[in-house]
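Chain A, query sequence.
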Amino acid sequence: MLTKEENELLCRTGPSDPAGDLLRRYWQPVALAEEIEPGSAPMPVRVLSEDLTLFRDQYDRLGLVARHCAHRAADLSYARIEDGGLRCLYHGWLYDIHGNCLEQPGEPEGSTFKDKIQLLSYPVQERAGVVFAYLGPGEPPLLPAYEFLDIAPENRVVTKIYHECNYQQGNEGNIDPQHLSFLHFFIREDASGSRVATGNVQGGAATSNRMMGDDPSPTIEVEETDYGIRIYAVRDTDAGDDYVRITNFIYPNLASFPAFPGVYGVNWHVPVDDTHHWKFMFMVRSEGPLPKNALGLTMFEGLKDDYTNERNLRNRYLQDREEMRTRSFLGMGPSFPVHDMWATEGEGAIQDRTTEHLGYTDKAVALSRRLLLKATRQVQDGAEAPHVVREASANVFNHIGAWQEVISKTEEWSSVWKRNAEALAARMGSNGHNGA
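Chain A, predicted structure.
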């Protein structure tokens, strides 16, 4: 449970809010690359309660600038792409990707007025099918070299989905391992609609769905790390072994988790404003291609062209009571992102954490809040935010991984991440960071 003041500090992310200041110290996803391909129209973007315009000039350079023209506030997301920049439709002022004003057709010949105009702009870069922006002060840090950002494109699927709630409750759902025994449980395993969802977990004789259903009361342990939190959820198997599942909270607004055998996921929750956010979703197979159709309905069912879902709060997520009896615990179809939408949007636009009652299974949720509140205050006091990378030598993250495995009860749980971290280091061509 948080106080009202702590909850406000955690959830308010506008330009003048402390948590917004914290989030701006990191690169944040602002669009999918497929939304802003070469030749595309400018794209209106709202992120961290700030309205911006994302565009590619005719040289395929990305720019992220203020939504409104510095002249008389016309909307630049309607502008023309020409002559090396973004031309306002109202009076023809032209801006480049850095916000420099290149032309002012209405000014007298020889005028230097344009040299006095600087449109707000932010650094952007494209990686892993996503456009990232740095909205903070000073020199941008390095974009962390996570495996899922650098792996071959054919090994990765990325999309996004719109949420009508605060980003924080979205990310907290990722680090609550016990809900998997209920929210995402399929009574009939073929109801998931996914080829990759039905394989047995490494070392075991059952699917993750079945083992989670068989033991809804996992042992949960958390470790504070340099990147955030490593979370162990351990369930008993019918054979008397331990089913170990390792997930991660990663500063400040993402999480990684085992998805299906050989596949892990990353959810990156980016505030649109305080009551809406985008969840950027990555699915990754480290050791081979991951065809989009292999994920089936578990990721894409109902996802529309605008990245909202046909199932939503207004139609009660099309819940089906017959499905609840015969196919799935929730009765809202096979899409895991829809399940999560129901859980997090139903908590309210901004969850009132003064009335909740956290239990044993909420260890990671409670710790993540403490760490984020600490980090927010740390930045307000003038210190560097945690997990900000500025040196290439420190940009090695083979100790961050999401894995699941069935092991003997005589084996240490930590052996799962240590063994897999060694394999990850080998894949990434480095045996660099191997600490906690």
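The chain is about 20% helix and 25% strand. Residues 27-134 form a domain with the Rieske Iron-sulfur Protein fold (CATH 2.102.10.10).
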